[in-house]
Every structure is written in structure tokens, then in C-alpha cells.
Specification:
Rossmann fold, two-stranded parallel ribbon, globular, single chain
Length: 286
């Protein structure tokens, strides 16, 4: 079995770590020789994005396709590159996954959102994700591809958690009344993607997140306790002096339901809350 990824970052690497011991081969697009060398050192087949022949050949051999790169002003770069290559190769992977964001729901004042909830993106980035989702589903229907959309909240894991920010001295407990976020451990994300690959459904949309949306301040305080550190003082949002991008993030508050992924895929997060996730990271030396 072969997985092909457009973009090989934190999420794709976690999926590769999960699949390779089970006999999967993994290939990914690269833009330059340095990226190619890095991937090859990890046992990943590097496919130069500019080499259309190699791209088509790899897609023709792939059983699963994952697109992780964010959209730009022109839409999804993965769609622009892969749709012509899929067509020229006559390739029909068993499943194609597109990683989107729960930002497509916008702000819900702390209320719950589900896959069927209306989309109400409140930023340019979120609106581009809405467009990319629409385009992938449309192309999937037109080309006969089995496309699934995965809406993701904040992703954390080894090397990318509140533990790391605390150690680096950059963690803050920013407080905004009633505000909560959903999140997901990167290994739970990979498990959800694998579960969908085993049960591909055209047009499927899944929220992959943990079971307990929580305020940023609670997560940082718990991480500080694990490290034996005093929690940083709480900082009101109005006094946090955040960047425009960070302010957009804190302008949204919602609770994301993962019920559909559980019901359809039989998936359960190994880390149902940030407490289990952070504890496991620390115990593993992260």
C-alpha cells in the first residue's frame, strides 16, 4: 500500500509514522533538493513538484492521497497540481483526504458545531478553506474521486505543545470570558485519518478533535503543574498585545463535536482531553 502526500509537515509525518510499520510506503511532494534529502533520510520517497511525469507516475501507484498544504489566494495549490496529474495518469486512489480547519465555522459564542452546521468563516484564511473544501468536493464528484474533508482545531503533540512554550518562556494564560477552544493530539489526528482510509466515503466531512473544549488558560496552567512550575499570571485579552493573526484566533469561541467520526469510523481519541495528551508527551520525554 502506498500513501502520497501533498505537503509533508507535522500532520503528514505523524500519519507516516503510524503507517510505515504496517507496511505502507510513503511519498511526498518537495520543492527543492534540501527538502528531498530530508525526506529521503526519513525513508520517504521525495517527488519534485515540478516533475509532472514523476508526479503522475506516483499518483498512479498510490492507494491513498492526503493534501495538507493551506490554500492561497488562488485556491488550493494541491488541487491545482494534482487534478491534472490525476487525470493524465488515469489515477483513482481509494481515498483522497483534504485537511481543513474548524475555522470554517467562525465564532459560535462557545456553542457546539457539527459537520452539518452552517459555515461562517470570519477571516480571509477561513474563507479560503471554505473555498478549498468546496473545490475538492466538486472535483471529486466530477472526476469520480473519493474525497473526504477533515476539519481540524489546534494540533498539539511532541515538540509542539504548552510544555514547549513554558520551557521556552513564551507561554501566556490569555483570558477572555467564556472563551473555549477544541484541540487534538497529532497522534489522534493520524489515527482518525487511518480510520477514514480503511472506510473511505465520497463526500465525507469529519471533525477530528478531542472530547473537552477548554480555555487556553486551563491548558497552560495544567502544563505548568506537570513541569512543577507556577502557572503564568492570567492576562486579559485586551491587554495581551497580540498580533492581528492571534487576535483573529481569539475572536472565535466554539465547541466542536467529534460524534460523527466516532460513529462512522469507530475512532476514539487516545487522548480525550488535553490532560491525557500533555501527560503522555511529558512521560515520553517531550
Amino acid at each position: 500500500m502506498r500513501l502520497f502526500t501533498f505537503g509533508y509537515g507535522y500532520s503528514a509525518r505523524a500519519l507516516a509514522r503510524r503507517l510505515k510499520p504496517k507496511g505502507w510506503a510513503v511519498a511526498a511532494t518537495v520543492r527543492g533538493p534540501a527538502d528531498a534529502a530530508r525526506l529521503e533520510a526519513e525513508g520517504i520517497t521525495a517527488v519534485p513538484l515540478a516533475d509532472r511525469g514523476r508526479l503522475a507516475d506516483e499518483l498512479a501507484r498510490s492507494h491513498a492521497l492526503l493534501v495538507t498544504a493551506p490554500p492561497d489566494a488562488g485556491g488550493c495549490p494541491g488541487l491545482r497540481a494534482l487534478a491534472p496529474a490525476l487525470a493524465s495518469a488515469g489515477a483513482f486512489p481509494d481515498g483522497t483526504g483534504y485537511l481543513s480547519t474548524t475555522g470554517v465555522y467562525g465564532d459560535r459564542g462557545g456553542g457546539w458545531v457539527f459537520e452539518a452546521s452552517r459555515l461562517s468563516a470570519q477571516s480571509v484564511e477561513g474563507a479560503r478553506r471554505v473555498g478549498a473544501e468546496r473545490d475538492w468536493l466538486e472535483v471529486g464528484r466530477g472526476m469520480g474521486l473519493t474525497v473526504a474533508i477533515f476539519r481540524l482545531p489546534g494540533i498539539y503533540g511532541p515538540g509542539r505543545s504548552a510544555l514547549d512554550r513554558l520551557r521556552a518562556g513564551g507561554a501566556r494564560r490569555i483570558v477572555s470570558a467564556g472563551q473555549v477552544f477544541s484541540r487534538i493530539h497529532v497522534d489522534d489526528l493520524a489515527a482518525g485519518l487511518e480510520a477514514s482510509m480503511a472506510r473511505p466515503r465520497a463526500g465525507a466531512i469529519y471533525n477530528l478533535c478531542d472530547d473537552e473544549p477548554a480555555p487556553n488558560s486551563d491548558v497552560v496552567a495544567y502544563a505548568a503543574g506537570l513541569l512543577g512550575l507556577p502557572p503564568p499570571p492570567e492576562v486579559p485579552l485586551a491587554e495581551a498585545n497580540l498580533s492581528a493573526a492571534a487576535l483573529r484566533f481569539y475572536a472565535e469561541s466554539k465547541r466542536v463535536s467529534n460524534a460523527r467520526a466516532k460513529a462512522e469510523l469507530g475512532w476514539r481519541p487516545a487522548y480525550p482531553t488535553y490532560r491525557e495528551g500533555l501527560t503522555a508527551i511529558l512521560e515520553a520525554g517531550g
